[in-house]
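Narrative summary of target 7.
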Amino acid sequence: MAQGPSDGGDNVKVIVRCRPLIKKEVRDSEEIIVKTDSAMGSIQVTCPDHHVTNRTNPGEHNIPKQFTFDSVYGIGSKQMDIFTESVRPMIDSVLMGYNSTIFAYGQTGSGKTFTMSGNADVPEERGVIPNTFQYIFDHIAQQSEVTDPEAKKEYLVHASFLEIYNEDIRDLLCEAKDRHKLPLKQHPDKGVFVDGLSHHVVRNEAECEAIMRKGNSARTTAATSMNDVSSRSHSIFQISVESHSSINGQDHYAVGLLNLVDLAGSESQKKTGATGQRLVEANKINLSLTTLGIVIGKLVKGSPHIPYRNSPLTRLLQDSLGGNAKTLMVANVSPAESNYNETYGTLRYANQAKAIKNKPKINEDPKDAMLREMRDQIEMLRKQLEAAKGTATTTQAAAHAIESALSPGQAPVSLPSAVTASMDEAMVHQIKAQQELQAQLEAKSSAAKAAAEQVAEMESQLISMQGQMLNGQALMDETRRKDMKLRQAKAALVDKKRREDLLKRELIKREEEKELYKEEFASMQDELKARKRKNRRLEAQVQSMEDEMTQMRADNDEEKESYLSEFMEIHRELKRRAVVIAHFIPPAELARILQHTNWDSDIQEWYIDHGNLTGAALMAHRPGAQGGGEHPVSQFSRLGLQMDPDNPRHKERNVIGLGLDMPDGREGEGGDDGYDDMDY
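Modeled conformation, tokenized:
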């Protein structure tokens, strides 16, 4: 059950971060074209003179383009400041039961991965993701100091890590041999989810960091001209935080899902020098980012149809863009003059995203909460354990009773029939009774041992399940307590500065409004000067809009070029497949196959009815032959293959090779007979 959304929804929060110049840009003496004002939340980007065209005096009209965002971080910004000021409120929402998404966007090499992941081994360089781990488990650790029973909570935290590579979704935490394409599905309660994605219960930040390292090592990266370690896929680290509290004797559950998204960078083929597979990857990256831009544009315009299904990325972010989530966009930009087009494009893109309105709501008492299921399992296990302990106690008591019935120090004996015949009947009866008691004792002892082992196994299972449910006691120690106080003190300072900046921003805004409406002129000359100033401002705005139109045309041309390249590649592939179909599949069979094809909108692929019964599908599950062969081969064929390897009669696949045997020369060249001196 979910609470209603907050009043009027919640706009997407957008922050901008500008990285420093990299070594190559410093060597090339690149000019810094970006100016940031963190207090005012504004950023200016100035077009370099050599980018300006069709102007008589470029320098005179080269007016900076200014944008205002929720927060702006300049070249000297620190990882922890960004987390404390902008990211922490999103994590607090997750701990309350909201869905939240934080995604980094920007051109390749703009610092997205550093912002999101950073360097986990250096505390000052830890990015959003590792700082999030620490903050979540600090919050859970504080539960050990809560005294009010109704305010005390239990938590269950689990994580998953996926990438979208060439529009295919893959689990980064499974083994490489099992890393295949995963389908997207939609559920009325869960929304869009990845079917088959692994989820791992985590108990502390160390386990989270181990998962992140494992996933990052499996993520697809490659070197380009702009970045030595360029991400070739979009990655999403998901953290689910489930909480349980008891209020007035009633159980209450809440589930918050956090998506930490590191988008691959938008690329220009001219700058990255991508070819071959890198170019294919770049086209796919740009295609998904373009779809994301289209979705954002449609949401801003209030279009009735939003094309979420056009890309796996937009489907996964469906709730984050106009849905049930709080969203923070981190726009990463480069300050170098050579990246003006990309920086300006990123800022325009981010400025557009500010207008998106989400409708977040707390996910209360969901039916599929793992924490609820685990608590039920623990309760059932406790009852089974009590019953097993009772059975074990009864069995042990029976064994002791039988043992005491036996004569101390006596052991049952097995006497020969000749001896028992000469013995007194009473004595024989006593010996047989003793043997029966000993057999019962062994059976009861064995049962008692099995019961004790079962109890021990159930206790171990119970401890393991209880260990996955976190109440803060195992996390809190003196070191964490001191570190938490230090982090909280730093956060308080950041909050104070943030409030001061907001007050300053509001004060300046009001002063500007006051000046706008308070134009008293002492003379006609003053009025003329004021009107000239206003005209210059309007001219600057017109020039800025013309520049923006020029930039938009350039961006559209670049997108068209990218689409054309993608189209030509797809067209060539279609032609090749058409050639194969035309030469190897009879028209009647092709028509029959097409008749049984259907489109699956969930996975965005065609499938064939009962495709699991086709020859190719059955062949994939057919066991191989001895010796590693693909098909069973008779002894006769093995011998024949050794004697004549080129004879198709003895091959596993009885198909003649399709390669053409081209002659080494041409007829009419060579000797008098018209033939070369070749061996035929």
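The domain at 10-365 is CATH 3.40.850.10 (Kinesin).
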